[in-house]
Amino acid sequence: MMQKERITPDLVVKYIIYVNVALFVASLALSGREIQISLNPFTAFSPSMNALIFLGATGTIPIDHYHEWWSLISANWLHGSLVHILFNMTALVQIAPLIIHAYGISRMLAIYAIGGTLGFYLSYLAGVGVTIGASAAICALIGAALYFGKSRGGDFGKAVYKQTTGWVVSLAVIGLLIPSINNWGHGGGVVAGIFLGWLLGYNERKQENAGHRIAAGVCIFLTLGVLTWALVSAVYLSI
């Protein structure tokens, strides 16, 4: 008799990484000969702009010109280069287990999905033309960790707050040094994560309930629906 695979924190993180990698491979495949291959590590193996737009890059151009509001969701799963996705997935592996420990799997997924979307919405309001990347969602996790550390207090809470504050400072410095970084998306993600951490609560104050599981389920359903639509339409448009 087959047993169901138990959903563990490691498995959740792996699934998120698998989806990101699958979309990155799809963006390269759709780029064809337009893939950028260079000695610059920041641009090596970069998908074409057309492929990224087709798959759901967000910003004022996709939303205002093509009315693709769904791109606020899909953009969280797209990346502009090999280094870009490696950096973001490494950050995810570091921060996600902490958030799952503090908030549980359902709330972590809700914070990741909703926080990333809100981060990109702020960057849209700020006038960013085209943007992609999981960093807005990851910054939402960082924001939730900031709230948890500050709210919980004690030695563990202080350690979490100190570490995540260091991450925020590092993000700000990187954002100032690299012009292409979407600081609005990062900042919006952090603020959204703080708000969602307060709204949803963490395990030590509020145990996971049906509302949290429903929120996570809705986020998963919408995300998979949007990504499926984006992939199918991208293949159709590239034919």
Automatic annotation (TrEMBL):
Alphabetical keyword list: Hydrolase, Membrane, Transmembrane, Transmembrane helix
A Pfam family annotated for this UniProt entry: Rhomboid
Intracellular or extracellular location(s): Membrane
Superkingdom field: Bacteria
Signal peptide as annotated in the record: none
Gene Ontology terms: cellular component: membrane
Every Peptidase S54 rhomboid domain range: 67-202
GO MF terms held by the record: serine-type endopeptidase activity
Membrane topology recorded in Swiss-Prot or TrEMBL: Multi-pass membrane protein
Gene3D superfamilies found in the cross-reference section: Rhomboid-like (1.20.1540.10)
EC number(s) on file: 3.4.21.-
Family to which the UniProt record says this protein belongs: Belongs to the peptidase S54 family.
Protein name, per record: Rhomboid-family protein (Ventrhoid transmembrane protein)
